[in-house]
């Protein structure tokens, strides 16, 4: 998959037990706007820059239809070709668990593809696209879209 490497310490550092509700309560919603994303990360001691760097996790992986349906059907700012492609597998109703790759070009490689997608208005989900939507993180998204070394460094610095 490529991408940055870092040492992972053994043992839990964040909790003495694991619960799905606890985990879900600590992850921003895929429907969050930029200010909510920044606030959510700030509550954990992370900066707006960290939000953008750590969103690089979406260069690999998939999202369920239910987490991006409203974005591809109701958001006039989304790339129309991208939305049409995503609608093939995510119907207006049902299919909530159908999966879609975050990054269509290189879905199994840690790279800067998801940031190029944001510049092209092809962010999945809505919360990702908020990183490049005329706001404070646009310049950093542009930087990461052309400088995978900077992305890898910033991501690895903050992931742990």
Automatic annotation (TrEMBL):
Residues 1-160 form the Plant heme peroxidase family profile domain. Keywords: Calcium, Disulfide bond, Heme, Hydrogen peroxide, Iron, Metal-binding, Oxidoreductase, Peroxidase, Pyrrolidone carboxylic acid. GO terms for biological process: hydrogen peroxide catabolic process; response to oxidative stress. Binds 1 heme b (iron(II)-protoporphyrin IX) group per subunit. Binds 2 calcium ions per subunit. InterPro entries: Haem_peroxidase, Haem_peroxidase_sf, Peroxidase_pln, Peroxidases_heam-ligand_BS. Disulfide bonds join 65-90. Gene3D superfamilies: 1.10.520.10, Peroxidase, domain 2. The keyword Oxidoreductase applies. It comes from the Eukaryota. SUPFAM superfamilies: Heme-dependent peroxidases. Substrate binds at residue 28. Ca(2+) binds at residues 59, 103, 106, 111. PROSITE patterns: PEROXIDASE_1 (PS00435), PEROXIDASE_4 (PS50873). It catalyses: 2 a phenolic donor + H2O2 = 2 a phenolic radical donor + 2 H2O. One of its GO terms (molecular function) is lactoperoxidase activity. Belongs to the peroxidase family. Ascorbate peroxidase subfamily. This is Peroxidase.
